[in-house]
Design a protein that fits this description.
The chain contains four helices and no strands. The chain is mostly helical. The protein is flat, with a radius of gyration of 24 Å.
């Protein structure tokens, strides 16, 4: 199989420029000065919002560490779906 050097070079260049732009944008958004007065007036999250985010983060961590209860709940429906798909592909 023959590869085209020009297409590979263009793809690599686009990848490098994309990464550089992403880093530049990240620096401006997160570490730059606030220039919009509407944004300057916004406040950080309050205690209720922080509590909800903490509960969601704990749930995500629990699903990652102990996924068996979640996969057991889906097992029946996934098995039915697999059987349905296998039967429909045989026809």
């Amino acid at each position: 199989m023959k590869y085209d050097f020009l297409i590979g070079a263009l793809a690599a260049t686009a990848l490098i420029f994309g990464a550089a732009y992403t880093l530049w944008m990240y620096k401006r958004v997160y570490f730059g000065d606030v220039t919009n007065d509407d944004v300057r007036g916004l406040s950080d999250i309050n205690a209720r919002e922080f509590l909800m985010l903490a509960i969601l983060a704990a749930a995500v961590l629990w699903m990652g560490i102990q996924p068996k209860p979640f996969t057991d709940a889906m097992h029946v429906s996934v098995t039915e779906l697999i059987q349905h798909v296998s039967v429909s592909k045989l026809k």
